[in-house]
Each structure stands twice: as C-alpha cells, then as structure tokens.
Design a protein that fits this description.
The protein is α+β, with helices and mostly antiparallel strands and 219 residues long. The chain folds into two domains: 3-98, PGBD-like superfamily/PGBD (Muramoyl-pentapeptide Carboxypeptidase, domain 1), CATH 1.10.101; 112-218, L,D-transpeptidase catalytic domain-like, CATH 2.40.440. The strands form two sheets. A five-stranded mixed beta sheet has the order 3-2-1-9-4. Helix 1 (3-22) packs antiparallel against helix 4. It is built from five helices and nine strands, in the order ααααββββββββαβ.
C-alpha cells in the first residue's frame, strides 16, 4: 500500500469517527477534530493530503499541526468555500477528500502568479500546473490592490515601507509600491493597505518563485 493510500485510509477513519461524534448527544455539529497544536498520525495524513493538493509544501508534512498547517487549511477552506477558521472538522474533511488540485484560471505554460481577489488566494503556476496555493490578504475597504496583468520588477528581502513605518520581509513588487510580502497577521479577509500579505511560513517560497519578470495576474 502506498503512502498516499495509507494517508487516505487514515483520513477516512478520522472522518468516520467525526461523523459518529457529531451524531452523539452533546457534541456540536462540525466540531473541530484537528487544530493548531494537534499531533499524531491523523495530522500527518491531513498534511499529506494538503501537500498533494498544493496547499502545503512537501517539507511541511509532519505529525504536528503547525502554523504552516493552519495557513494551508485556511487556503483550502477558502478554495472550497468553507468558513476559513483554520480548524479541521467533518465539513472540511469531506471537502478535502472529494477535492482535486486547483487548476490555473489562465492558459499557458509560463511561470506566473495568479491572485484571486475574490477568494483571497495566490496560485503559483509552472508549466500549466498549480504548484502551490497560498492564502493571502489584499486591500481592505478604502484601499486598493490593483487588478490586471503586471510583472515583478523589484525584490527586497527586507523592504522598508516609509508611508507606514514598517519592515516588509520577502517583498516582491509588481505595481508601483504594491508587493507580495510576509506579514505576521494574515487574516482570512482583505486587511492590507494595498499590498498582498503572505503568511510567514510561505513568504520566502513565494519570494523565490516570483523572480524578476514573473507575470502577476490579479482578478
């Protein structure tokens, strides 16, 4: 039996246990089974499935529900149209087991970053395949993250934002002063001043992927 099959069986067992619990008196429907701080084989099985679908890097697979696991779950929940709370209950598990890897919105084999302003997700595309899906946060009401086609023209591992007096790690600029960058607070909703906030566990990977000239498509 392959590792993927073992992971799937473990998750199915977890789902069966969840459905039994939620049918029992005194247990709220949709109660979280796995969340930040959880440990064990079920967490490893979850992380393997998230990695298989592009929401977590391969080196993020483990038996610990880390900050990276949390942000990967949020990204999947956004993608699946589930309330993005970062915890895994029966609804999230059902959706995960029925899901497939996200597909690019645009055609072409070029390396690019596609950003869904509606879903608050960034898709890293290479060779026509989504290789990573990352939860992001764009401009809050009163500010604007531009839509359209751009390309990365400036990169700084530690960029200083003069208007807001804050350091922006792993910054990749693609339109004026608008950049992808790491930020400690990446909520599930638009919250920035216009830039695209990236969770710290995934910011360096996006910075490395989005080399100079990489197309960025927002819509």
């Amino acid at each position: 039996m392959t590792a993927a099959m073992r992971a799937l069986r473990s998750l199915l067992a977890c789902l069966a246990a969840a459905l039994t619990l939620t049918a029992s008196a005194g247990v709220a429907r949709g109660a979280a089974l796995l969340e930040l701080g959880s440990r064990g084989e079920q967490v490893r099985a979850l992380s393997e499935q998230l990695a298989f679908r592009s929401f977590l890097p391969a080196d993020g697979v483990s038996g610990r529900y880390t900050e990276a696991t949390y942000h990967a779950v949020v990204a999947f929940q956004k993608y699946a149209g589930i309330r993005p709370d970062g915890a895994v209950g029966p609804k999230t598990l059902r959706a995960l087991l029925r899901s497939e890897r996200p597909q690019p919105v645009f055609s072409g084999k070029d390396k690019r970053v596609e950003v869904s302003l509606g879903k608050q997700l960034a898709f890293l595309v290479r060779g026509g395949v989504v290789v990573r899906t990352i939860a992001v946060s764009t401009a809050r009401p009163g500010y604007t993250t531009p839509s359209g086609r751009f390309s990365v023209y400036r990169k700084e591992r530690m960029s200083w934002s003069a208007p807001y007096g804050v350091w922006l790690p792993w910054a990749s600029y693609f339109s004026g002063g608008v950049a992808f960058h790491s930020y400690p607070d990446v909520p599930s909703y638009p919250a920035s001043h216009g830039c695209i906030r990236v969770p710290p566990p995934f910011a360096e990977a996006l910075y490395t992927f989005a080399s100079y000239g990489t197309p960025v498509i927002l819509g």
